[in-house]
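Structure tokens please, single chain.
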Amino acid sequence: MKKRFLLGILVLFCLLLPIVFANTVELGTYVINVDSYNFVDGTYALDFWLTLKCDYDCSFDEFYIVNSIDTRSELAYHDGQVKSYLTHAKLSAPVDLREYPFDKQQMFMIIEHKQLPASELKIVPLLEFTAVDERVQIPGWRIGDWHTKVYDHWYSGWDDYWQAYYFSVELARPAIDGIIESFLPILFLALIILFTYLLGTDRLELRLGIVGSVFVALVVLHLAMTSQLPSVGHMTLLDKFVMLTYFVALCSFFINTYLLHLRHIKKNVWLKKLNDWTRYGLPIIFILCYVALFYFFFKSLV
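Here you go.
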């Protein structure tokens, strides 16, 4: 019994031995400049201080930035266990445009050790050397909060975990810019269509001409807006808004065409009833559709 107990203690000690004697590195990232941010291809260039505080003689050469396209660094400060590297890195990250033009993007970096797995190296965020400098600005974007964490990443090829240091900065588009540049022009076109119902049935040809012109303008405007966006496998909020406006324009075109047909075959009673219903009913239905679109959009954000 005593031998089994001692054997169990020995096995437990062997299991905990790598953890007890694992090297520890404290890592901090202080962003001092964003050289460029291109949301079309999800690339950005950061200048930052990368600080290491180790319980052994560590170097940034032992680490690599997983999502880096190009990295240049130089040792600028060394005091005991603390080393700070002035680093310039061109990075990449996936872009999610489902909420465009109210979308939020993430600039992040993932740092891992080149050789040592999680059982031999522990990474701890060095918060006193981690932040985004208040002077950092990106034209057309509002810089939000930054976050940092350390997690274990599994590599199946090596059948082991590696510790990954994750640092991210949230970017958001100013809402007023999205409204003025994207939604207002399309909304004005939709209002032009709705105001055509104020015209009488003796001006149905004019109605059709206005709706057709608005439809062409809507297509051109939509193409101009989406030409600056990358190809993605999902619809953006702007796409849904434009599609709804397409639906409004098509409905108006078909209804006015049918009203013109009723006038041609001299069914004046049906012509008056349908015209009165569309004059008051369709604008209300279309407005409710727009309200529902934004209601469900903002509800999904909560």
